Amino acid sequence: MSQPTAAHQDAFLTVEGLVVDYPTPAGPVRAVDHVAFSVPRGGSLAVVGESGCGKSTLARAIVRLLKPASGRIVLDGTDLATLTERRLRPLRRRVQMVFQDPYGSLDPHLTAEEIVAEPLRLAGVKDKAERHRRAGELLDRVGLPSSALHRRPAEFSGGQRQRIGIARALASEPDLLVCDEATSALDVSVQAQVLDLLRELQTETGITYIVIAHHLGVVREISTDIVVLKAGRVVESGPTAAVLASPTDPYTRALRRAALDPTAIRGLKPRAAAAPTAAALSSEGTGT
Ligand SMILES: Nc1ncnc2c1ncn2[C@@H]1O[C@H](COP(=O)(O)OP(=O)(O)OP(=O)(O)O)[C@@H](O)[C@H]1O
Ligand SMILES: [Mg+2]
To answer: Which of 70, 96, 101, 248 has the most CB atoms lying inside 10 A of its own CB?
Structure first.
């Protein structure tokens, strides 16, 4: 197993010993079990693992929709894990999440413009016209036409709804964006467009990502680092190219085999890969 500890000296986010339990009538169920990793500023960490391994729970704990039982979530020097709601409030803007279900996470009664304008209001943009102008800009930024402004979630396709979710998350100009299977429900060409958008935004703004995905093509395209979870624990972690080049865990090996699948999104090389492993992986991954 590779080192699951805080390896990046310049880490923007460091998670240490994170434990999240769900209360159930039969007693607490441990969904995240002493998870540790770190992400450098402007990096992208992929969190992968089979269904039920704790990915969404981890994501919700990081954005503090859930309170961890123990452990640390240090964002730019501040431990979010133990902060009270009052002290979290000013930090909430900086950490946003795009949810797994692009439909269920949007208020069906609001227009796209209102959905995106709401976080601007919460961030203190008092002028309504200004909020709406900025919402329009954000929807344009994620590639939605101005005709989208006054439509409600039911009138959009899955990919468009996902874009609204991303625009809403970006409205508060977060430093960290957690995307929970943000592209999984989309067809491959739309996934590729959303990934392009995320990468473009990262180049422009230096935003840090945590991307939960189960499609290896997504993982390879978006991530600099990877964490593999199994039953709530980290079974493998490290730079994406290195982990995928010599996986030790059976799940990661299966992921790597999937890399040989010619349907893998666009067969691009992993990002920020060490030269030898990148070369090895790209020649395998593209099937050449
Ligand atoms: N509200 C809850 N109450 C009790 N147990 C829960 C609750 N939500 C999730 N769990 C359990 O916690 C574990 C982790 O769930 P989680 O949703 O984080 O998995 P996941 O990796 O996101 O799965 P998927 O890939 O299917 O989205 C699972 O065993 C799940 O049954
Ligand atoms: Mg999930």
So the answer is: 96
Q: How many domains is the chain partitioned into structurally?
A: 2
- 100 Cα: distance to centroid of ligand 2 (angstroms): 7
In a domain, residue 123? The reply is: yes
Nearest to 7 by CA among 33, 32, 43, 31: 43
**CA 93 – CA 211 distance, rounded (Å):** 18
The amino acid occupying position 68 is P
Are the CB atoms for 158 and 130 separated by under 8 Å? no
- Residue 87 is part of which domain span? 1-94+176-240
Structure tokens at 72: 């640390």
Q: How far is the CA of 111 from the CAs of 10, 40, 132, 159, 252, in angstroms?
A: 40, 36, 11, 16, 41
Q: Do 109 and 165 share a domain, yes or no?
A: yes
Q: CA of 213: how far to CAs of 63, 79, 139, 160, in Å?
A: 17, 26, 24, 19
Q: Which ligand is nearest to the CA of 25?
A: 1
pLDDT tens digits for range 53-95: 999 999 999 999 999 999 999 999 999 999 999 999 888 889 9
Beta 44-48 vs 225-230: how paired, if at all?
parallel
Asked whether residue 89 falls in the same domain as residue 143, the answer is no
**pTM metric for this prediction:** 0.84
Q: CB-based contacts of 197: which residues, under 8 Å, 6+ apart?
A: 142, 143, 163, 166
Q: Please count the helices (runs of H) and the strands (runs of E) in the chain.
A: 10, 10
Compute the distance from residue 22 Cα to the ligand 2 centre, in Å: 15
10 Å Cβ neighbour count for 158?
15
